[in-house]
Write the structure tokens for this entry.
Amino acid sequence: MIVVATNVTYLLAAWFLDPRSNYRGLRPVRTEEQIDHALAPYNLDPRAPLADRWWHWFSDVLLHFDWGKSPVGASVNSEIGFRVVVSGQLVTAATLLSVVAGVALSVFTASRQYGWWDRMTQLVSVFLFNVPAAVAALAVVFAGIWLNQHLGWRLLYVAGEKSPDVSGLWPTVADRFQHLVLPTLSLTLLGYVGYHLTQRSLLLDNINSDFVRTARATGLTRAQAIRRHALRASLIPTATSVAFSIPAIFTGAVITETVFGWNGMGQYFVQTIAKNDVHGAVAVAAFGAGMTAIGAILADIAVVVLDPRVRVR
Amino acid sequence: MTVATPGTHPPAESAATAPVLSVRGLSVAFPSEAGPVQAVREVSFDVLPGRTLGIVGESGSGKSATVMGVMGLLPETAQVSGRVLLGGRDLVGLGDRELSAVRGNDIGMVFQDPLSALTPIFSIGRQLSDALRVHQDLTRQAAWNRAVELLDLVGIAEPHRNARAFPHEFSGGMRQRVVIALAMANSPSVIVADEPTTALDVTVQAQILDVLRTAQTETGAGLVLITHDLGVVAGYADDVAVMYAGRIVEQAGANELFGRPTMPYTIGLLGAVPRPEARASGQLVPIGGEPPSLVGLSAGCSFADRCPAAVDRCHSQEPPLTAVPGHGQVACWRAPDIAGGNPAASSLFSPPEAAVEEHRPDRQVPGETVLRVAELARTFPITKGALLKRRVGTLHAVSDVSFALRAGETLGLVGESGSGKTTTLLEIMRLRPPEHGLIEIAGTDVAAPRSTEQTQRLRRTVQIVMQDPMGSLDPRLPVFRLLAEPLQAVGTDRDAVRIRVSELLSLVGLDASLADRFPAALSGGQRQRVAIARALATEPRIVVLDEPVSALDVSIQADVINLLTKLQRELDLAYLIVAHDLAVMRQVSDRIAVMYLGHIVESGDTEDLFTHARHPYTEALLSAIPVPDPQVERSREHIVLKGEQPSASRLPRGCVFADRCPLYPLLDGGTQQRCRTERPLLRPAASGTDHRHACHAR
Ligand SMILES: Nc1ncnc2c1ncn2[C@@H]1O[C@H](COP(=O)(O)OP(=O)(O)OP(=O)(O)O)[C@@H](O)[C@H]1O
Ligand code: SF4
Ligand code: SF4
Ligand SMILES: [Mg+2]
């Protein structure tokens, strides 16, 4: 899957992105031929047949894990290396938090169906569902700034993924964390909503089902019956959906990273597209596909853990 | 073959036995837009250890709300008052935590629908051991062992292996056994069973009732058995409470209640239920009217509008439940009069005049054959996989069905669910060449090529009435449009439609004013009448009825059955009926065909078949129907079949009934061999009779 998706992206990118434009604006003005010539060492020469370029690129990736060069010659690998860690952190943390928050909230509210809390949280979730990622990110930035001002010192950073001049293990961890909180928060705010709303309705179906009533009749309290029987049964569809929501979170990350000025994959993606960097864009897509695949594997594991019926077969 | 005789009750306990459960003045109300729904009003009863209290009543009479109130399982919005005394402790008002210590430990509960009552993702053994460990301090292993013992006790074969199975691998009957095991796991002092057999086939019902009895003997618990089936109550209950509109209106020992009913509603109910053991000489006697709405009940007796004995006082004051000597507790102002024989109970309800003269004119002159089905077969592919459907087998829904239906005659198809009854009906309605065999409607072979006009004529000849009138009537159309639609489809002009619709309404006994109501604003009985009128609109000759009354309550059911009989006589209709209620079938059918796994195993004249059943399956089926008379029900022998009807995907080579046949083990080797290898053919018992059956041994 990942391989296919990546290759398709390569062909699309090679088709639509024009690396020559990076050189057109340069002074002295170069001829098309000169430009093509300059691109040739990076395997971007438009004169070479697409199939050849593709094969060159693909074998490099396969044999040397070399994702190619940008139109100006920078290595994609070195650009991506640290960004993967930065974005991976963000997406993983946001996904986990979204799932935990969404599911926890759904349990809390579904057992109080149509109560005050249920209505309130549902209202908030529906509202957030319709907020664009950029707006949410900005709101979080302002909230962070406001908080810092009130504290009188900078607790949370609103820009960048790390401070340049921190050394030592613990200070580094603390510094990273201070940077991570706000972007993660803004991504989570958008991500948890889906889990809350779908999980709530799944759970409600199960809470009002006959088997929960049976479980209560054997002597479980309502809360116990919901937790042990209804929740588990209703988590199975959610677990599968986590994998498929990763691309959406990733897209959200593009905007969030831009707002927070993170040097992450999202920001890189925007950059590569803007600069017609075929190889860079493809590498980002491959990263997204990889994350999705990891998510799918984790989801499968979760389903096996949750649903003993699968284990027997 | 197990021969069980119900009615082997522990001797009546001495009066000193303290009740294990006492309910006093229990009331339950649910808030609704129109005001509070008074689901249960001032209900009181006692449950004695080892004895069975049956609670009967029509749907909506408050049976389930009562027991849910006892269990503390009502939704939080429900308002509950009164007292529920369990071992002297009042459960009303206790919190969920305190109640959960009682539930499953002191009270066990069995629910109606076994298919959804078990958690799909846990194994049977896990659910049982969890139930044990909630209340008992057991190790995992000890709980598991006990769970296996319990499964064995409720008759699950190979309990060690099956404890590891998941609910979806079990049939309905097996799941209900598991639910019973759950209920009895911690030896409760009370077991509450809410319609435990309603969702099951009649032969499985007999098994489950036996298992319930085992659970009761094993734990010594008092049993509260809720059902709408008077036959089940007659066979299994020591005491009976009849509920109507949220109240107990009569409560007495089973013998007194069935023998000398006193409250007019009870009298009416017993008169309205068809008896399987004898063909009623006359018609069923309907009560008439409908139960009242439970919102804003009037001050008087809630039965007053339907009661033939009502006096002025009945409309202004609600009668309390009072003891009537020689009877039981009765809530009726006129109970002393009725108990004294004035008015006599039997004279209260009279059959509708139109039908009194003769119920069934001896239609010995059969009309011409209007429907002929021969060697009909229908299979469905069994597929696996969500995206790429692979065919993994073939389901033989109908394998060999032949019958003929004459004008003015009713043929009943009976058999357990999955025996292929509905498929047979649908094949006929399709009007297409069948997969195998022959279908001939009014002399026309449906497989023969025909013009559009002929097809239309054919379509007008056969009409269908379905089980669920709500599902088959478009909710957005008023009654007039519903009835006009089939007429317009065949090109009737506007004035003729108007005339025909009012004709149809009066034909099915509906008031013309109902014409502009929507289906949702009609009662169940009225809806079914509209469905019947719609089927009759184009003057068909054959009406196919799939469970026409099973969604209706007993007191309304009788009305519809009577209507069908009347229409048949007036219009010389041929009916092909499918119904699971054999008592109803005996009432309405002239001839009956018994189906098992897609085969007709016996067919013949209704009376002949009911009194001289020849096929072992028919025998067992008939024996499994509970008779609403405690004397009869408790003295007769029951044949309880083992197992359930297998899946139709792998038909046995020989007799399809061989795996469950109670006769088979008693046969000599040679005949057994034939049962196993040779499919028995349908043949007459004696030459010249219409009574045919398919069995090697009989
Ligand atoms: N469209 C279908 N596709 C697959 N299987 C079907 C279909 N229709 C019916 N069956 C199967 O055919 C068998 C006979 O079904 P049918 O509905 O005729 O039984 P029945 O006697 O009418 O049962 P019930 O009393 O529950 O209505 C069953 O095993 C059923 O599951
Ligand atoms: S109280 Fe009156 S209306 Fe009610 S059942 Fe008795 S006689 Fe009929
Ligand atoms: S043919 Fe054999 S198995 Fe079938 S019903 Fe008769 S005796 Fe039983
Ligand atoms: Mg059916």
Remarks:
- The longest helix of chain B spans residues 202-219.
